[in-house]
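User: Last request for today: this protein with adenine, please.
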Amino acid sequence: MERSSLLTVVLVWAFLWISAIHADSKDDEKLLCTCENGKGTCMNGTCKGHICFYSWVHGHEERGCFSEVIYKEQCYSKFERLFMHCCRENLCNAFTTPPSNINGEPTPTPPELNRPELWITLSLLLLITTASMCGLVLFLRFRRAHGRNDVHGDHDVTILKVPDGDDPTYGDIFDEFCTSGSGTGLPYLVQRTMARQISLVQCVGKGRYGEVWRGTWMGESVAVKIFSSRDEQSWFRETEIYNTVQLRHDNILGFIASDMTSKNSSTQLWLVTHFHELGSLYDFLQYSSLEPESCLRMCLSVACGLVHLHTEIVSSQEKPAIAHRDLKSRNILVKRNGQCCIADLGLAVIHSQSHDYLDVGNNPRVGTKRYMAPEVLDETIRMDVFESYKQTDIWALGLVFWEISRRTIVNGIVEEYCPPFFDMVPLDPSFEEMKKVVCVDQQKPSLHNRLHSHPILSAIAKIMKECWYQSPPARLTALRVRKTLSKLDHDSDFSIEKLKRDI
Ligand code: ADE
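Assistant: Here's the final one, the structure of the complex with adenine:
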């Protein structure tokens, strides 16, 4: 290589090296960004962060700061009707506006680069040493390796995908992210924006946990659980699980968004999910009775949801195993198709054998006393062993089946709704009262004789009994319950078909 080329290469590398060091050293300094008053760390219209952002989602504008940790996910979000601009200069997001074609075709314009000194210097160097092809090649390689949208390099990031017609549904939005994103849910900024576009319509539930509202987002019903401040750990846990674990399943309540806002100096915690107008299984059983086939369908769907939770998946769609720890009819929702879905992951524990961890969280909340397994009540449960938590879920699953089966008509007989152990403990039983019944007296909920005269219900009754063994390892697994119920379902379909043929 000739001397001038070598010199150029050295100069180019030195320049880029110094630029990189300069950019890195900036990482430690915080920028002043424009933001909206009252949100997050925003004070008097400014916040401090590592990246300033301007976002435009469905006409909703926002400016603020991102920390280093979350900028990547946010600044690279690709989303219908999202215009996202991230920059690294003091107050650089103050006057950003969406491009004029935000409602037109997607812009083919690449992101603008805002480091003129780099380009001027490089142009000069390239002019002086036109013979220096080596330097140029090295430079181009360097640029390609670091990408055009690299925020670390002080470049502005502009990602724009613009609409083509009607308002999207949240299903469309998920599809977009499930195929192009990490697959675990919407980016935090999109969740926040969606949550803030929800109108609360009607309170559909209230309890120690907080409130559940029906809300509307873009004309669609959504459920909004507003956590009481006492139960913030449940919000954190559920938000963490839905955002880190691939949990899309027909029998697990569908997550839409989580949001934390501050209102009159108190924190509001929202969890936005699919809305099921039939409400919880507990509510549904108060006013509905079932045919044995519907009972089977419901029980099978709960078992399917629990199998999905309990199972670790180790493929590309990987998912840790999850134990629920507060399974009960109030935490199960009834869908229009007669299936159920499991809700409330606020107390869940996570386990991965392949990654060798057990994460029990740090929620001071405990499960519902009425549904507690004997080993929880007598405190002999092995809290360091994941299997133990699954076994307590199975105890509770048997109790849920019992609640459903009481409301199932056999030989024209159906019982009124009653919670498990209704005849053995008072309303809102104490820990000691439950312990006496479940551990000392080793009582089980009684099963009506009528159940034994129907093939589906006698099989479900047998499953219940096998969920209630005093010894946790003796209980059925969720997978075994699901398999037995699936077989029952196929067999009953088969006998109905046969009956039709015979007629
Ligand atoms: N009650 C609690 N969660 C609900 C939901 N997602 N839909 C309807 N009612 C509910």
